[in-house]
Amino acid sequence: MSSELPPPAAAAPAAKPPSIPSTATTTTTTLATAGDGTTTISSLGQDQLLEIFLRLPSLPALVRAALTCRSWLGAVRSSRPFRRLFRALHPAPPLGIFLEVDDSTAPSFAPLRRSDPDVIAALRRGDFFLTSLPLGDVAPRGWTVTDCRHGYILLWNTFRAVAAVNPMTWEVDTIPVPDDVVDGGTSEFAFLSFLLLSSEENPRSFGVVCVCADVSRVRAAVFSSGTRDWVIHPWAEIGREYGLMYGANTLVDGSVYCPFYEGRSVIKINTATMDFSSLDLPSRVIDYGQADFIVGDTKDGELCMLYASDDFYLHAWIRGVDGDGIGIWVPQLILSLSAEIDRTSGESEGKLRVVQARSGCVYLYLTCITPAGTQRSWLFYHSLGTTEIELLINGTFDDYAYPYIMAWPPCLIGDDGATGHEVEGSH
């Protein structure tokens, strides 16, 4: 998968990773030597140690190395620049895909088979079958995944409860949705989405954004794991009735984007200020009458919009401004995926749609009905800026697919230089 660094060419030396910026907590020391004049790894200064860690192949490998001793763990915890650079050089791999299959009480997990023994070990230790989810009286109707980011999975139960699960740590936080969210609603009230507010640099806390609609109004409610409270905001008019769909909303850089099909626009909700605004759709999306567009971001953090047409073309726009400073959608690419889909799946027909676009990582879902009347489904990965796609899984499942990306363990994050954990062999 494209998250792995390609091997260097045989005739060229391996490229040197960028240097880590020096900080107050990263100091360079002169290497000490043992009594016989040799230099040992324990003699390395923190800067040299982090330069070596940058050459590890993946996050699981870094975790295993950092937990070797207290000083190595402290080096990783105390350097935010190192963590930022390591993420850029070695994007964490997707460990698997959470899928909705039939009407089961919990989503299914399809692990992605990899040769990396550290990734395999992470899968074996985690609770990816979600056995820690409460059932019975608390959640009698089963759970549905609504979001997945920074190591958390967010699930919704129609008995008005959400659950934030970290399968790597087996932690589960069940959160009742207060009745006040529905206050002022009519018989047309509906929940639209539950989305996670989380950060790679603060993995111990999270928020939940609930977006709901009632005829021509929308409302947002925000839960904080720090305060354990919901903040319920007033209803806001959007000018037209209906047109908002469950599960179609996305969260990008702290704002929720809700496709408003009837209004041919996207409703933007800033979760920090709770300001509501509207973004027009690109003209081509309107011309095609395409309702399956997705709002996401590129690897550089730019807001983008994507959709896949019936002839297997991927269309992408980047949000920019015109000469008058007015926001517009700038065409970025029109890429034919027909040959790649045929190469990876053997199919040349079907319905293709984009299901997620985060940090330039695009996931596409293809489904078709066979001559025998059965459904077949495929999930692909595509990196914006390239021309290839990778087949992740195939089988029979719907388009609610959520890739689970391994997050940095909390024990590796902290700027105070303290480990906060006892590490075997650190004394």
UniProtKB/TrEMBL annotation:
<dbReference type="Pfam" id="PF23635">
    <property type="entry name" value="Beta-prop_AT5G49610-like"/>
</dbReference>
<dbReference type="InterPro" id="IPR036047">
    <property type="entry name" value="F-box-like_dom_sf"/>
</dbReference>
<dbReference type="InterPro" id="IPR056594">
    <property type="entry name" value="AT5G49610-like_b-prop"/>
</dbReference>
<feature type="compositionally biased region" description="Pro residues">
    <location>
        <begin position="1"/>
        <end position="20"/>
    </location>
</feature>
<feature type="domain" description="F-box protein AT5G49610-like beta-propeller">
    <location>
        <begin position="145"/>
        <end position="410"/>
    </location>
</feature>
<protein>
    <recommendedName>
        <fullName>F-box protein AT5G49610-like beta-propeller domain-containing protein</fullName>
    </recommendedName>
</protein>
<feature type="region of interest" description="Disordered">
    <location>
        <begin position="1"/>
        <end position="26"/>
    </location>
</feature>
